[in-house]
Amino acid sequence: MGRMKKISVLILLILIGIVFFNNCEDTTRPEEFAIEEINFSYSNSEIFISIVVNPDRITEVGSVNFTVFNQDENDEVVAQGQLEDNGKNGDIIANNGEYTKRFNKILDPGKYRTLVEVMQNGERIDSTSRTLLVDPPPPSISLVERTEVFVDSSFAFYSVEVEDENGLDYIEGVYCQLFFPDDQGSGSIDPLYDNGENADEQADDGIYTYAFVLPQPLPYYGTYEFKFWAVNRAELHSDTLTVEIEAPLVDLIAPDRGSYSAGETINLEWQTKLVDSLEIAYDPSFSRDTPEFEIIETIAANEGSYQWDTPETLQTDSLKLKISSVKRPFISDLSEGLLSIK
Ligand SMILES: [Ca+2]
Ligand SMILES: [Ca+2]
Q: Would you identify the CATH topology of the domain 27-134?
């Protein structure tokens, strides 16, 4: 019995919740009123006001007046005019008893009230009003400085400038999330700092900084996306700032090692990402302290392979091949082992 009672109480609470929620959303009024429903909304600098007139009383309606008051400024009138049922200016269907007005007007944050009056021969036959809260704008975010490409240290650096109408103290936080190339998932949501420490130059200047080190080697090659956003204390989110960063790849697939005859043609194969042109080079005696590479050829990376006619005179057992990005030479790859040519 005790359990049944608990369940009954729970169901009752849910029902009360549903009724309460419905009441909050309800804009309808009793049947005897000419105005059955009123709507008042504001978004993107546009005010929308509409009423639904009781179908039995449509013929009584001469005109419908509206006035918008700023309740935070002693009910100053910020807009007034007429709602129409003519199928124009935001009224979708003419003569359906829904009177509408949609118009551009920038409202400062605050509390507003619209009064709608239904008139007949200069007499008011019904009126109702509805209030609206206009939120302050969300914080803004813009990019100040960034790293263009992951370098061999896999390091990325960003700074963003954040502003809020209520000042920097009103910023709750600035965040970043990393998305891997080719839909391969995302990293955790990390905070940015404006504390003058690490990479952030100056504390409390509204410039938040993010320094990121990827695991090495890079888990994926391609285009990474960093998404940045700010949240203020009203829990309003700024736009999301998306910054792409490239992680290029140069990978020499073949040859890794092997023995060849002088003058023989060696087939090189590679794969690349985000690299335009490659330099192919070799060091004939890689065991030296300082490698000395001789350039064989510069070639479009998307060729994918190259036939190298080895010099007839070449004699070595420690040849190393290297391919590298022409634009960013540190992005390179060497043949794994050594090649011998006799
Ligand atoms: Ca209408
Ligand atoms: Ca700073």
A: Immunoglobulin-like (2.60.40)
